[in-house]
Amino acid sequence: MTKNWSSCIALAACLGCQPISAQGAQAQTAAPMQLSVIVDGAATPNLIPDALAYQHFLTAIAAHPFPSTEEQARQSAQLSALGLSPADRQALIANLAPFRAQLDNIQSARAAVGSGPSAPTQLMNLRSQESTLAATTLQKIQGSLTADGMSLLDQYVRTHVKAHIKIYGGTH
User: Fold this and answer.
1) How far apart are CA 62 and CA 78, in angstroms?
2) For residue 98, which of 26, 32, 63, 155 sits 20 to 30 Å off, Cα-Cα?
């Protein structure tokens, strides 16, 4: 049986941010929702999709095109764990800046989504745009890094990033 992980993740994201509506003078309260862990990357990293792991990695490590000193230091510290050559490091950074700028636009659009009936569709479309952006950026990175650099990056994502991802879905 094939799982559709993006549906499970989207379900978790959507369920976690549903507004509680008020009716009259009394607000309705919902019972706390418990989502179960479907995949724990610490226990079974091979079940975490590579695309998801790379999307998390790129989002966490990408600095803006003109980063502040703080942001640059943060990114430098994060990149040092990869062990890339200076040339591969620069190639990676060059691909991350446009990714961050486009991601910021998507996140701004997400913040502007209202709570009307079209909101779930809009949010799913924005999530799809994020996934496409990450996949396109990864392709550019693969074309920019040396074989050794890409191997180091891939090993880092598969061993370190996946171990920190949990996929939630279903309620109980």
Assistant:
1) 10
2) 155
Per domain, the residue ranges of the chain are 48-164
Q: Which of 169, 155, 168, 172 is nearest to 53 (CA)?
A: 155
Give the model confidence (pLDDT) of 104-142 as tens digits: 999 999 999 999 999 999 999 999 999 999 999 999 999
Please list the alpha-helical segments (H only) found in 24-164: 50-61, 69-80, 86-112, 119-144, 147-156
Give the integer Cα–Cα distance in Å for 161 and 39. 14
With the CA atoms of 68, 71, 72 and 76 taken in that order, what torsion angle do they form, in degrees rounded to the nearest 10? Answer: 170
The whole-angstrom separation of Cα 12 and Cα 161 is 19
pLDDT digits (tens, 9 = 90+) for 46-86: 999 999 999 999 999 999 999 999 999 999 999 999 999 99
Contact 91, 137 (CB under 8 A): no
- For 107, other C-beta atoms within 10 Å of its C-beta total 13
- Which one-letter DSSP state was computed for residue 82? T
- Write the DSSP string, 9-30: HHHHHHHTTPPPPEETTEEP-P
Q: Which residues pair with 26 in a beta bridge?
A: 23
* Dist CA 61 CA 96 (whole Å): 8
**pTM here?**
0.78
